Amino acid sequence: MVRINPQGDTVIAGKSAPGAKIRILDGGKEIGDVTADKRGEWVFVPKKPLPAGNRELTLDSILPDGTKETSESVVVLAVPARGKDLGGGESDQSNQTLAMRVRRDGGGATTLMQVPGRSDGTLPIAIDSIDYDDQ
Questions:
Q1: What's the CA gap between 19 and 34, in Å, rounded?
Q2: How far is C-alpha 43 from the geometric centre of its chain's CA atoms?
Q3: Is the pTM of this model over 0.90?
C-alpha cells in the first residue's frame, strides 16, 4: 500500500514474514527500513516528503533466517509539483498523484493504487489502465 498527499508526505505499508527487515528503495537508493511485527505487518513513513517527479519504489527484505528477497513488483509513482497536475498545468485538486504497481518482469496486470482526481467523486466513469502483450 502506498499513499501520498499533495505535500509529498507518504505512507508505505505491507506484509512480509514476521520479523523481516524491509528496506524501501527509491530508484535503487535506500530511503529507510522497518521491521515487520509478529504478524508480518509493517508501516513506513519517510522522514522527508517525496519530491515531485517520477520514481520507482522497490522493496528488499532480510528474513529472520538471513535469507534475502526482492519484491516481485515495483511501485511506479508520478508526483506532481505542488499546485500542479501531472501534465504540469495549474490544478486546484488536492489528489493529483499517480501510484501503480507493476511486475518487475513486465508480466501480469497493472494495479492502480492511487489515481489522480478520484477524491472529489466527479468522475462517473474512467478507464484506470489497459494492459496488453504481443498477442
A1: 10
A2: 13
A3: no
